[in-house]
Amino acid sequence: MQLALFLLPGALLLPGALLLPGALPLAAAAETVLGAYIFHRHGDRTTKSYSPVIFTPLGAEQVFSSGSWYRSRYVAADSLSKINGIASDIALLSQLAVTSPIDNVLQSSAQVFLQGLYPPAGSVSAQKLANGTTVNSPLNGYQYIPVNAVTAAASSKNSEETGWLQGGSGCSNAVASSNNYFYSTEYFTTLSNTQTFYQSLLPVYNTTFPADKANFKNAYTIYDYVHVSQIHNDSSTIPSNDLLTPSTLSQLSGLASTHEWNLAYNITDPVRAIAGSVLAAQILQSLDSTLSAPITKRSAQKLTIQFGPYGTFMSFFGLSQAPAASDEFYGIVDYASSMTFELVTNATLSSDTATISPDDVSVRFLFVNGTASAANPPRAFPLFGQKESTLPWKTFTAEMNKFAIGTTEAWCHACGDVLGTCPSGSSVSAQSGDGGSSGGISRPVAGVIGALVTLAVILGLEGLILLVAGLRLVKKKTLSKEISNNEVAHTSKA
After folding, report:
1. Total structural domains in the chain?
2. Residue 245: which region, alpha, beta or left (left: phi > 0; alpha: psi -120 to 50)?
3. Which domain holds residue 3?
4. Which of 32, 120, 134, 284 has its CA 20 to 30 A from that of 460?
5. Which of 81, 132, 168 is nearest to 454 (CA)?
6. How does pLDDT run across 375-432, given as a tens digit for each residue?
7. CA distance 183 to 363
8. Which residue did the predictor score with more confidence, 25 or 368?
9. How many Å apart are CA 173 and CA 236, to the nearest integer?
10. How confident is residue 151, by pLDDT bands cut at 50, 70 and 90?
11. Is the dihedral of CA 186, 191, 197, 202 positive or negative?
12. Domain assignment present for 307
């Protein structure tokens, strides 16, 4: 079953928007935040229609502001929601785990976010040497917090330069599942019903999208092109700008959301959302690591921050039934959007508390569309079709484990052995977290899964692009023969 959605519900999530029925208030001050996991989209960038895709000053400001807000909630010494034991002024690297794909926009976003989270420490970072000399760090105590690559073997091609961005594209079965959307009745119906709409806007974008490309097949790239131009170009420089009415812009974004949602998730074919499944296992592993560490262990990991694409948001939203709380979860999330999982307890902690029982711990889900700020703070929503946004730890892990992919074997079973590197006889259910009692995914396993995703991504993504664009591959031997026969090698256009 595919989703046909023409308007962008995410447009409801603007700064100052009214609190919707699905949204719930944030934490009471009495509880203790033990740790958190933040999944964050990059900030503003240039259009994907032209390479290279560049991270903009506006994008830097967006993620810096978001980092500053999360500092005020989890790190600042005077915060009522400060993570228990986390360093406030100078980052303690063992407490942080920050990751991003190797991509100039995502990596840069993560680095700038961290400067909002832990700004230059000034005189606090000064060091007095044995000879009595005081040394001040450069740039007023700029803090060097590493942003680790999601995998060790990543593609050299920037993710943000691809028209279709979905973290599961390295999974052959997920790619095949996404491809199926382009053969569905829903897709062909939408393609036909919107043909006139896209053709009517040709005067706006015909220098980039010729008539045969102005259709629903290219819904996201057309939307992205127009969206970026609306942000950065003076209206007088946009051809036929009068055609881009609020209604038209809303329909462009809504169609793009429909297109991308159906590539990222399908209720009857969960492997399509492999990116969300792997993310779920990573969230479990991170929170379980925090919960398992002694309360008094200052060096324990307390905050995980991962930057990634909008497609992963969509995959996770679908798997976790987020749309049951609000239709706004169907839309493409805005730049600098973030979702957070807070590990909290109402148990009384003291300097003598060594560990805390999982029975005394809960997890709260928060989401904000766009930059987190005082005017647009993350809000709590229920997941998994539940009524409460804060769930007992055991309930949360049980629900996440229904779709988390937490072992290499499970990933291989779900995705198919694309490169011949999977264990023989893989038989783990594709929908089983299988990550042990904690339901988590170990870092070595996460690395192996990530490596498999990365090594397969070129094959998977090229396959999808070839299908969408109507291109063909020519073998080197065949190409040489064609050239020798004075035939021009070419790729057909859709």
Report:
1. 1
2. beta
3. 1-118+144-494
4. 284
5. 168
6. 999 999 999 999 999 999 999 999 999 999 988 888 888 888 655 657 665 433 333 3
7. 39
8. 368
9. 46
10. low
11. positive
12. yes
Q: Which residues pair with 307 in a beta bridge?
A: 40
Look at strands 96-100 and 303-307 and give their pairing: parallel
Supply the pTM of this predicted model: 0.81
Determine the length of the chain.
Answer: 494
The beta strand positions in 308-463, using DSSP E, are 338-345, 361-368, 379-380, 390-392
pLDDT tens-digit series, residues 212-256: 999 999 999 999 999 999 999 999 899 999 999 999 999 999 999
Q: Provide the residue type at 312 as one letter.
A: T
Specify whether the CB–CB gap between 415 and 298 falls below 8 A. no
| CATH of residue 176 | 3.40.50.1240
CA 301 to each of CA 295, 356, 494: distance values in angstroms, whole numbers, following the listed order? 11, 15, 50
DSSP bridge pairs for 33: 83, 344
Specify the DSSP class assigned to residue 212.
Answer: G
The stretch 435-451 carries a mean pLDDT of 41
**DSSP string of 9-64?**
GGGG--TTPPPPTT-B----TTSEEEEEEEEE----B--TTSSSP-B-HHHHHHHH
Domain for residue 132, yes or no? no
Residue position matching structure tokens 């881009």:
244
**How far is the C-alpha of 457 from the C-alpha of 157, rounded, in Å?**
11
Whether 352 maps to a domain, the answer reads yes
Task: Give CA separation, 388 vs 328, 384, 385, in Å.
Answer: 18, 10, 9
- DSSP codes, 127-172: EE-TTS-EEPPHHHH------EES-SS--SS-GGGSSS--GGGGSH
In whole angstroms, give the CA distance from residue 180 to residue 36.
Answer: 36
At residue 185, the 3 state secondary structure works out as: helix
